[in-house]
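Input:
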Amino acid sequence: MAFLEIAGLKKRFGNVEILKGIDITLDKGGFLVLVGPSGCGKSTLLNTIAGLETITSGEIRVEGTPINGLHPSKRDIAMVFQSYALYPNMTVAQNIGFALEMRGVAKADRDKAIADVAKTLQISHLLDRKPSQLSGGQRQRVAMGRALVRNPRIFLFDEPLSNLDAKLRVDMRTEIKRLHQTTGATIVYVTHDQIEAMTLATKIAVLKDGELQQVGTPAEIYNRPANLFVADFMGNPAMNLMEASVVSEGGRTLLSLTRSGDNDIRLPVPASASSQGLDGRKVILGIRPEAITDRDGADRNASAVEVVESLVEVVEPAGSDTFVVTHIAGKEVTARMRADADVKAGSRLPFAFNLDKAVLFDPGTGRRI
Amino acid sequence: MSTASSSAEGRSTLDRVVIYGLLGLFAAFYLIPLFVMLVTSFKPMDEIQSGNMLALPRDPTIEPWMKAWGEACVGLTCAGIKGYFWNSTKMVVPAVAISTVLGALNGYVLTKWRFRGHKVVFGLMLFACFIPFQAVLLPMATILGSLGRFGNDLQDLIGTSLGFGNPTVNLVIVHVVYGLGFTTLFFRNYYEAFPTELVKAAQVDGASFFQIFWRIMLPNSAPIFVVTVIYQFTNIWNDFLFASAYAGSGDVMPMTVALNNVVNTSTGVVEYNVNMAAAIIAALPTLFVYVVAGRYFVRGLMAGAVKG
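Output:
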């Protein structure tokens, strides 16, 4: 039995269905990241777990016991809000201790718990300050301290890093990851940042328009996206998605991709898809930029590397890598080459396609084949 | 220095002179009545009758002030206005406190605990702000009359009326009911911009409805609290219509009614100096509240106005 179970959860505001039947489970100590574009219902889902929103139907269970009828304070959960939601009239210590105070914990025990948490988060020197006297990163720590001090069954994070500047965000991300590893806490985390999702999660749930698109480990989501939406949403730069038709030539089933002003490309069908029944169909080939490289950069262990010459349109050096854009099947295709690769716009260059990492999608349903 | 810039400078000096001149003129215009009141209140009667209204007192005396406070005749009793000052205080303090706290509670519910029809309820409360005093005089008198009879029944039954029927209590009730529309409006607009996440965080932390109100909402409402208190205090202290209608005679009348009676006393000469002193005493509390909390007033009005 999973620690946290969300079963058939639906949420309706008037006639608008915000969540259309969500099923997710999470094991104890797991880190579930809910990710999706704005308005996909991920924050609503988090609020229903917290009890700040009621649900229309379905059930939320923790350790087998339904909690969806309980008041937020009775669910034994703690939440970190996007705006941190620190009480401006209280000091840091009072902020952290407020939940304990509300639960009638004695002053001495409270002070000890506050001191312990402050030490863990390295904010002991800030305990007497008011939130307005803190920097963004310090407020973030206090908000986490307020959740940590209660030692709840589940932590909920609602886009906690989105108000921080880029550098601090990366630091705090590492900090949250470390916190998860050292405390073994069970965490549900909402973000629209797919890099945060990839780095933090043990399990990712991708949502769109209130529907669950895919649930899986970061590797599953990244390498085997369930549909075109997940493929496009996760990863930066996004996965290349090219239209192709399946043809039979010399007893082999191949993918044929058209190019304007150039000959068509022939690529073998990726191992992830079975070639049976594909003949003559249109498919969409999905391949990540890092699976298209210069010839020397190709993965030596890959079993199916195909080299194709193509015209370089744009070169974008990014320091660690160089992104090279070419045109295949009427679309811009981004390849990720070594930083020192000698590439010039307008020249023809061999592109090495690693088809071990490629996937096929049905253009009609959008699902992976 | 070029001629163009020196002429521009000359023009800006002229602008200044005009602006400050006008400002000074209007300030004087508004201050002259107060000045006349002040100088008159320190003059003996013969000096008032013979002299110039704007002249400073030649022979200053605080006699009129003492008389206004302790000896002036209100109707038939001649014990000054000090008792009525206390009457007003007894009535204003609870009326302001109750209407402000209830307004805060209303604003809290109307923004953070929304229910079906919350907009209609707020609309009706807003409507209450526009009902003229005169329109409610008679219905309110009927209600207060019933409350008075209820108080008498209680008196017979349990030996105390619990304040029902007491004119001061009546005025408190009237002012609370009438002020609620305004206080609710102030607090609702302030809480509209108050971050809801704080309420959610407090809920998750286990705070109850009233714990959130006392521990989170009220401590963070200082600016609007000051605005509401100043507004209510000034209105209720200065109210004459309700005061004269429901507590217009005897020992219970508030300051405003008493002042009117001092001025309207028909026996003997009209003592302008005493009248002026009494009027200033009557206006002092509102002046005091404004001076002490005035800077929050402006700040608070802004806080409520920008968002919401």
